[in-house]
DNA sequence: AGCTCTTTGGAAAACGCTTTCCTAATTGCT
DNA sequence: AGCAATTAGGAAAGCGTTTTCCAAAGAGCT
């Protein structure tokens, strides 16, 4: 039942309770200093009666810091990132942290802007979720901002992005893709095509490299014209798959470097009348939960997405280390219906 | 290239530029008051040289407000909500708004807490994305918080939640479900089952009600035992579908009140050996983009999710109205492969 | 040349807290 | 009973901005 009159501040509460500002503050923020039971009660009552709500900005000023953690992702509507975001939000809540969300729409240059904004907000920490990496100039700008942020006392963690001045959480894309490749070879596949995502995306590149490594161990190669770049999205997958068919290539198995692209490819193939999975096998990467119901169910590499976010937040909450830390997570190959044993 | 020494504030900038604090402030925040070209330049240089970053909390205090907009959703990893979130983030950015994200994990009582937190943060606006509605007590608590928030000058908008003291964006669930039902009848279906989501969720209930209305127009009923409640999630759909089969019911078509449940049901049916879509048709609701690639592709009702977020934000940015406004969006039936004409 | 208007710059108040520094009062000793 | 040590409350100094209020200087008149 709110009292409707203007803003109520601590002074009002103190006056109402008949105590000093200092006492009111001490009662309300559970400070170390003790306050007599009687006054404590009076203050509590007054605050309740006036429906007092402390001003977070004022507290931030006085305390010299906030409980804000900034989360910067390339695209919050992509299930890969929204899963990570969910785990971060979930884990942040019990610590009383407030999450600020920025979605860069996969425009890398905005990451630096957001970091700057977060510094201005006096955010306590930043979690940066992986993005492009090849443009050295932009990367340098980002590094500079991060540096400025951390020297100002902020904590930074990155997911899937090496070489940043921050604690980082890494997915072992390369070894995961390697293992997947070997599994596919074991299933009998020899002729592969890869929907490789953007050429300048580290994650995508690592997966391609690992995949080729795995094949090569068994003497299998994938020609350059069987590798198609495209956006790291569902539509990117659809288009790359269409392009593949148009080139007249006839692989036995298509590896899309992430699940989102893989399901796009599934539709593309189906739209062209390809009978899945018998005529063509498809594999993905990530094991996105909300995509587990597609048919044929995707063979993929499971990444512990929730743990990624958890760990990144853990870094922020830990004591700062002198050198930046790295935590690696492995993927696990999951074989499903989209890649039946060949023949 | 950050300067590494402690925090730099406006006073430092002013001193470096040899001007007063007031002048520095005026230059840096593009105030109305004009400042001579020479001083302006000196201040700019000083700020750049010191890598000055204004303190957002201090600005909030002095200005008496922030550029924060709070977004409260039931579950950010659900594509329905992450799509809305994405549209809000995207539209907020050009206005210089900062989005704070709270995910209640579908625990309704936390909405009120988050609103309280947002009031404390002096957030400029709140977008509350639909949740339960039947517990009058909790609803009252939420109303009280919202009331307190708005009388303190904040703006509130709700999506899919009526009867809140806020501008609201409504999806016409009922008419959408009605149209879907009629379409299904036209395709020849007569025996239906419904995976109805949680009984206390308004959205779910409206869809069920509308669906029945549509059927009734053609003299078709769906018995109570063919309506199965469950969680509004993928697993909820899977379980409800399993339950349906265990009951030995043999509908011709199953309507899941949202797509996420529908794809869960798809898997459940497939796991039990039901041949889709010929043996059993399935329809959903929402037309979630990332689920468009499932097979059989879902017949569903398309909701303009992006527009929902856009409109909610629009309400926040508009001049406040004396009475709270409502904007309704209609859904559009989309028939796909999961409901082939019967026979 | 003597006025009154504009500009332009600075001093200082205000925003709402937290926390240090005092002071008064109580407690625990001897 | 007298003193040190502890406890509880208040006054006031920040925290980093924005913005009002003044004053000085220059511009435009007659």
Automatic annotation (TrEMBL), chains A, B:
PROSITE patterns: HTH_LACI_1 (PS00356), HTH_LACI_2 (PS50932). Signal peptide: none annotated. PANTHER family: LACI-RELATED TRANSCRIPTIONAL REPRESSOR, LACTOSE OPERON REPRESSOR. The keyword Zinc does not apply. The keyword DNA-binding applies. It holds the Pfam family LacI. GO terms for molecular function: DNA-binding transcription factor activity; transcription cis-regulatory region binding. It comes from the Bacteria. This is Transcriptional regulator, LacI family. Residues 8-63 form the HTH lacI-type domain. Transmembrane segments: none annotated. Keywords: DNA-binding, Transcription, Transcription regulation.
């Amino acid at each position: 039942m709110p009292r409707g009159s203007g803003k109520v501040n601590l002074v009002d509460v103190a006056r109402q309770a008949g105590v000093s500002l200092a006492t009111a503050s001490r009662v309300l923020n559970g400070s170390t200093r003790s306050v007599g039971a009687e006054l404590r009660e009076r203050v509590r009552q007054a605050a309740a009666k006036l429906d007092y709500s402390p001003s977070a900005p004022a507290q931030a000023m006085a305390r010299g810091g906030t409980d804000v953690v900034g989360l910067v992702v390339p695209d919050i509507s992509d299930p890969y990132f929204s899963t990570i975001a969910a785990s971060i939000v979930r884990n942040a809540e019990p610590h009383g942290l407030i999450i600020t969300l920025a979605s860069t729409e996969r425009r890398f240059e905005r990451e630096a802007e957001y970091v700057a904004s977060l510094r201005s907000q006096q955010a306590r920490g930043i979690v940066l979720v992986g993005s492009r990496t090849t443009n050295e100039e932009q990367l340098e700008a980002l590094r500079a901002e991060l540096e400025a942020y951390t020297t100002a006392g902020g904590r930074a963690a990155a997911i899937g992005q090496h070489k940043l001045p921050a604690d980082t959480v890494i997915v072992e894309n390369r070894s995961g893709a390697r293992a997947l490749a070997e599994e596919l070879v074991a299933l009998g596949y020899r002729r592969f095509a890869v929907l490789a995502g953007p050429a300048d995306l580290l994650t995508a590149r690592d997966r391609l490299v690992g995949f080729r490594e795995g094949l090569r161990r068994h003497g299998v190669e994938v020609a350059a014209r069987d590798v198609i770049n495209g956006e790291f999205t569902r539509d990117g997958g659809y288009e790359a798959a269409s392009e593949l068919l148009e080139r007249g290539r006839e692989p036995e198995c298509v590896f899309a470097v992430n699940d989102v692209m893989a399901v796009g490819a599934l539709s593309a193939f189906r739209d062209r009348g390809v009978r899945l999975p018998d005529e063509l096998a498809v594999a993905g990467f990530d094991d996105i939960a909300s995509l587990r119901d597609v048919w044929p169910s995707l063979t993929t590499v499971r990444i512990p997405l929730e743990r990624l976010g958890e760990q990144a937040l853990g870094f922020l909450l830990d004591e700062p280390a002198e050198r930046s830390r790295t935590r690696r997570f492995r993927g696990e190959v999951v074989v499903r219906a989209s890649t039946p044993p060949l023949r």
